[in-house]
Amino acid sequence: MNVTLAQPRGFCAGVIRAIEIVERVLEVHGPPVYVLHEIVHNRHVVEDLQAKGAIFVETLDEVPQGSVAIFSAHGVAKAVVRQAEELELRVVDATCPLVTKVHLQAQRYHKTGHEVVIVGHEGHPEVEGTRGQVSGRVHVVATVEDVERLELDDPQRVSYVTQTTLSLDDTRDMIVALKRRFPSIKGPELSDICYATQNRQAAVQDLANRVDVLLVVGAKNSSNSNRLREVGEQRGVVSYLIQSADDLQPDWFARAARIGITAGASAPERLVQEVVERLRGWGVDSVTEMNGQAERTVFPLPASIEELKA
Question: Which fold does the domain 2-11+195-289 belong to in CATH?
Answer without folding.
Answer: Cobalt-precorrin-4 Transmethylase; domain 1 (3.40.1010)
